[in-house]
Amino acid sequence: MGKLGKKARKFAKKNLQSVLKRKRKLKSMFKKKGSKRDEQDEAENLQEEQISKSNGRDLESENIEDAALDAVFSDESDVVEDDSESDGYLSEDSGCAYLDGNGSESNQDDMNVDNIGASELSVQNREILLELAGKRKKLKRLEKKDPEFSKFLESYENGLEKLRDEENFSDEDNTSDDGTQNPSKGSAILSKDKLLTSSALNTLCQLVREQRSISALTSLLNGYRAACHCGTEPSGLLDVDSCCGLQDSKTFSKILIFMLQEADNIFRGMLGISCSSCKKETILELKNTLKWKTMKPLIKSYLRSTLFLLNQVTDSEILAFSLVQLRASIIFFAAFRPLLHRLIKIAVHLWVTGEGCLASHSFLVIKHVASVFRSDCFNSCLIKTYKAFIGHCKFVDPVSSKHIQFLRNSFIELCSQDVPNSSSKAMVCVEQLAKILQMGLRAKKKEAVKRICSWQYTNCIDLWVSFISANIQDYDLKPLLYTIIQIINGVAVLFPGPRYLPLRLKCIQWLNNLSSSSGVFIPVASFALDILEYKTGKDNGKPGKDFNFSSSVKLPKHWLKSRNFQEKCVSSVIELLAMHFAQWSYHITFPELATIPLIRLRKFNETTTIESFRRVVKRFIDQVEQNIEFVQRKRDEVAFSPKDHQSVESFLQFEKSSANTRFTQYYKSIMEKAASRNLVMNQKISSMLQKKSKRKKQLLPNNTLHGGANNEVLEERKVDLSIDDGRDGKRVKKRKT
């Protein structure tokens, strides 16, 4: 093929694919200077984006996962670690190394030097570790080749241990500087390789009680630590056979009970602190004294062992007993901040997961810590309890609803200790609720709507509604009140359908509670009357199965066509309107307030074909009309004008205090019927749940585990659990057998 002509070569340079590809590469390497018009357009686009972000309309950048309810607080107390170097047994000589059962230093035999990062250790340390690892390998080879050499090493280490023990005993004086007597050189002191018998335990207890012997107390604390660190089975039952240093289960239970009962009195007696003293300043003043330097390691060992016991045991009675005894020693935690944070964490966990007596005692510990340490630990207690409540209330059933109600009431009691501080935290949480609701109303995405129509969101609203209702009379919580009202109105507007009837009923109840506690008028009649317009099935539908509204936020579809759904709608509207009107039945504006609701109720009474509904609605209309006539007649008798606010507020106050009007009596009868109806419904549902649980138990194999150590502790612990009610200083005692 011959050469291309001049015109053909020109065409190839301009239009061939390889040439065009090369041109595109060159263009990407060099940036063209944009025109002024393009620069203006880019500036305008940037300005529009900034305005849209400032208005909160940047929907793409918003992520619903970032708006978690428990992500509003950052609690850094979990990061605090214990300041101690080890958790070993107490030693009289601080320079004595802790030895294991064979007498050799407790180091790892198989040390992998390659896993040590270069960033963690310096070059010099790595060289030393490599040299030590090489020598250790040589010693192991010698032990394998020459067994007599290994026996020589063991005898040499045993001799060193005896020398250390003799030095420790010789350094101890008969009496200490604070006047407490110490046992002689040959007294029984518990170490990790010695067995503590029942008779030795009785002797040690007597020495501590009568002579305040520090050496005997040290031995007891070592034994107590051994008991607390006993190996546990997967079931959580204590296994005394795996516990070194204790003879049997009786010794185990005796030392646990003695230390838990007597440790606080012993420490207070040795330090000269009165039993009634509960101020942290008492401990802080003793920090520089010789008494405290002597007792500090003993107190710390007791506190750490008890906290470890609370993490190990799962029996609720042992946990409750330990918490009651530990609550008396709260002031000693003032000198050990890391242990204090650990105590709060354990108490919050037991408060959330425990039941009955255990949950109550755990909350008393949290409340006592918050009251003793005040601003130092109140925020930590508040944040941890709030996060625990939010994490625990994601799912609600008829069984767990009572426990969640207890958690809510106890959290409000904790907040009431420092309402100004709690209200600032509450405002942060309520703003987070508003943010999630705003996303749901604006975007209406499935994830956002799901998060709002959830137990976690509704329980959070219920928590702060209860807090506001309990404290608004004594504190200025109006900003918090108005914000939460807007959130509840938004939730009611977002879910108008019949399937969300339980959620709508909760919203109306919240608004009624806020209105009655604050004295602020909140219009709820329109939300309640909208329920009567639900048309989901025929008027003569079949009765459905019993359904518990208190444990659901959304109804199943098949229940909407039942007769029970229509009855629930009518009865709920009457109850909620009666509650709303009862609050304002003595107000001078009641005739105007009830006019529009009466019009809508008459319309429903004319259109419905069910006689039972007509009868209930007609009676309610008659009672409201009678109260309107009563208020109108009293209003015509007064001589003041509507501008006289003081006279308006005092209108019918005498009749309101007596509560003898017909509408008030009618309202009480409505509430009594509703309470009895709910009680019957709960009994039916609980009986159904019991039958289901019995069937499951019959299907499961009967594998029960019995722990001898737990039974010993429970049988021998015949002590009084004293609960301080915090009001008159009296101690209420309950005998545990």
List the keywords:
2 strands, single chain, mainly alpha, two-stranded antiparallel ribbon, 63% helix, 29 helices
Question: Secondary-structure map with pairings?
Answer:
Blueprint: H1 6-15, H2 17-29, H3 36-54, H4 123-145, H5 147-171, H6 198-211, H7 214-228, H8 249-271, H9 280-285, H10 290-312, H11 316-327, H12 337-353, H13 357-373, H14 375-392, H15 400-415, H16 419-443, H17 446-452, H18 455-471, H19 478-494, H20 501-518, H21 525-529, H22 563-584, H23 590-593, H24 595-607, H25 611-637, H26 645-649, H27 653-658, H28 662-699, H29 708-716, E1 720-724, E2 731-735
Antiparallel strand pairs: 1-2
Helix pairs in contact: 4-5, 6-7, 6-8, 7-8, 7-10, 8-10, 8-29, 10-11, 10-12, 11-13, 12-13, 12-14, 13-14, 14-15, 15-18, 16-17, 16-18, 16-19, 18-19, 18-20, 19-20, 20-22, 22-25, 22-28, 24-25
Family: Belongs to the NOC2 family.
Main location: nucleus
Biased composition (Basic residues): 26-35
State which percent range the strand residues make up: under 5%
The parts where pLDDT drops under 50 for at least 5 residues are 30-37, 51-62, 76-81, 92-121, 163-192, 233-242, 702-709, 718-737
**Total count of helical runs of at least 4 residues:** 29
In terms of quaternary structure, what is this?
single chain
Using only C-alpha atoms, the radius of gyration works out to: 37 Å
Q: pLDDT average, as an integer?
A: 75
N→C terminal distance = 113 Å
Query: In which order are the strands of the major sheet placed?
Result: 1-2
Overall body shape: extended
Number of strand segments: 2
Estimated structural class: mainly alpha
Helix-residue proportion: 55-70%
Largest sheet: 2 strands, antiparallel
Subcellular location: Nucleus
Organism: Theobroma cacao
Biased composition (Basic and acidic residues): 714-729
Keywords: Nucleus
